[in-house]
N5-glutamine S-adenosyl-L-methionine-dependent methyltransferase
Amino acid sequence: MYKPAEDTFLMEDVVKNYRGNFALEIGIGSGYLTRRLCSNFAFVIGTDLNFDSIVYAKNNTLLTNSNKFLICTDLGSALNFKFDLIISNPPYLPADTGWGFEDNTVHGGKEGVELTFRIIYSARSLLHDDGKILLLRSSLSNIKKMDSFIDKFFLKKKILVRKNLFFEILEVVEIAGIKNMSSDKYEV
């Protein structure tokens, strides 16, 4: 399970400015950002593939309101609902480091963006027509490839905040127009 760190707090600074009725966090980790969403949205769902994350978030984030749900599922595959906002601080480090191990709490695929592509693609069926997705990304991943993916599907991208750290640059990106994304299968 991923514990809150600089990237989490950067995402929180952006998320606090969004309000609406329905929000989804994909990959809740500790549940820190899901709890933040609960302050500004009437109905919130948090998902994670790791059941331990679901249990931890349930026990440690005071998500006891009847309009807040935690579900163990891959992305949003178990959901049949439309959201105003989807957020994700996905694992974004490249797994192709030569270190000989992969940790799915921090590695987002060979180039660090493959999981992010899956999240964007799956959001097509989960967003209201004017819904948006907020994603955190790192300069350590293949940002050019992510931007090409966004351009290929004619999505609207806006970098909302950028933070320079000692070893990387973090960005929170807002993506819109996902509902109009073609159903062509994406290629990584």
The chain has a mean pLDDT of 83.
